[in-house]
Amino acid sequence: MTDPADNTSSRNPEVPLYSTQEVYRPVFEEKSALLEVQVGCSWRRCKFCDFPHDGYRMFTLDEIDAKARQLAVLAQGSRRLFLLGANAFHRPARELLQIFQIVYKYMPWIEEISMYARYTDVMEKTDQELQLLHECGLVELHIGMESGYQKLLDYMDKGVSVEDAKLACRRLRAAGIVYTFTMICGLGGQNMSVEHAYYSALFLNETQPKRLWILGLLLWPNTPLATLVERGEFKQLSLKQRLEELGRMVDMLQLDDCQFVDSTVLNKYTLRAHLPEELPQLRGAIQALMWEA
Hints:
The protein has helices spanning 61-74, 93-106, 119-123, 127-135, 150-155, 162-175, 193-207, 224-231, 239-252, 279-289, and strands at 2-4, 22-24, 33-36, 38-39, 57-58, 80-84, 112-117, 138-146, 178-185, 211-216, 258-265, 269-275. It is an alpha/beta fold. α7 (193-207) links the parallel β9 and β10 (211-216).
């Protein structure tokens, strides 16, 4: 998700509020104040991702302090703050707590803090650190799982295991931290579409995320996946096939309390539902859109 980044409010030209003209945040964070603490991703190996093109940098605490001071002017009235960066949770717990202190120094009205994370970032922290982060304001992590099918995750060089992801979810739940997943429809292409839908549904049913954001696979230029497509080694799904894959996954979902959003349906629609009570309507909407695909 992108928003225009307004650097004109910077009081210190050496530390702009945002380092790029567009910033990336989850669809669920549209009302959150946005504090940039990182550029790029610490992993930078996923075949489908263009984050490696952005480089990787964690801003210093002094830089974050300057950014927070600027943001405070714009964030008055916001009770929630999202830390920008592809996986801001990669920082050690002690640094995250220092960032929280900076936030509260300039924006004492902030009540909730959220950010992007990888499962490996969660596993690197102790249960005590997770609990302390939650007590100090961390309420939600947005995690790009992308698929519940291990073979596909390995193929895309995601760098996570499904079993570790499940354990990370159990630890987050025990600490009181909500987790939200991003899944990518079409990530398995023609060869792994059925398995991608099936195992993703199983993973979701076991982990029970609070929110689920479905995105369609976007082929970024100059990525390893783009090269595979050019060689004919990866065959993308058509929009109809992608919708069919979504339908197969949704038909299997058994989520107890989950906000569902697919913001790229046929590249022009957004589906929203709260599961499980709106599952029949979601299934009906997917079937109705088949006629248009």
